[in-house]
Design brief:
- By secondary structure, the chain is mainly alpha-helical.
- The chain has one domain (2-206).
- Helix content is 85%, strand content 0%.
- It has helices spanning 2-7, 12-32, 35-38, 43-52, 58-67, 69-78, 85-103, 107-139, 144-206.
- The protein is rod-shaped.
- The mean pLDDT is 81.
Length: 208
């Protein structure tokens, strides 16, 4: 294995570094984007029960805010629960944008790796072909070993770049789709709570 890597030349070093970074990002995102970490199962129901029993104090709202990304979005609406629906919705959307940005952490780096590593492989191809033509110029085509060295450099770096880029691009697309889905689910859960709270306030206003 080491012989293959060393035959690829110096450009294999940044490709290997990119592969290590990509694996680290993929592992971290799998851990951080778990459904139960982002959207706890019974959070909305628990918040509604606290609101119904008048236990939803400012301290409770702060606790909810610190529990999860969904908690942050819900807390934004709860802090303006005495206002009109549009104000609550605007607060939720504002905080939701910040949460979505945090969920996309490191994805730009993963996308950059997916874009850069094929270019590094292509650069290795160019360097390898330059070596081939230099050897042809110096010694002609009578020494196959010299020619094979340059060709192997070209092929190994190209293969290495593609081996890193293809899974990086696949996971980049996967995580972007996952983040989009989680953001939509958070918005649905938050607006569901907003509607319930608004109905409760409307009933309280018309009650004698």
């Amino acid at each position: 294995m080491w012989e293959i890597v060393s035959a690829g030349g110096l450009l294999m070093l940044p490709i290997i570094i990119c592969s290590i970074v990509a694996v680290a990002i993929i592992g971290e995102r799998f851990w951080s984007l778990k459904q139960e970490k982002i959207i706890p199962t019974n959070l909305v129901a628990d918040v509604w029960r606290m609101a119904s029993s008048r236990q939803l104090t400012d301290e409770k709202v702060r606790e909810i805010q610190q529990e999860s990304p969904l908690g942050r979005v819900l807390a934004a609406g709860l802090m303006t629960r005495t206002q009109e629906r549009d104000s609550m919705k605007a607060s939720i959307e504002e905080v939701g944008g910040h949460v979505a940005h945090e969920l996309e952490r490191y994805l730009n780096a993963l996308g950059t790796i997916a874009a850069v590593t094929p270019l590094l492989g292509l650069l290795g191809t160019v360097v390898g072909m330059i070596k081939v033509f230099t050897n042809i110029t110096n010694v002609g085509v009578g020494n196959p070993a010299l020619l094979a060295g340059g060709i192997s450099t070209a092929l190994i770096t190209t293969a290495g770049g593609l081996m890193v880029a293809i899974p990086s691009l696949m996971f980049y697309r996967y995580f972007r789709g996952r983040v989009d889905g989680l953001v939509i689910d958070m918005e649905k859960e938050s607006l569901k709570l907003v509607d319930v709270l608004q109905k409760r306030q409307s009933k309280a206003r018309v009650a004698p």
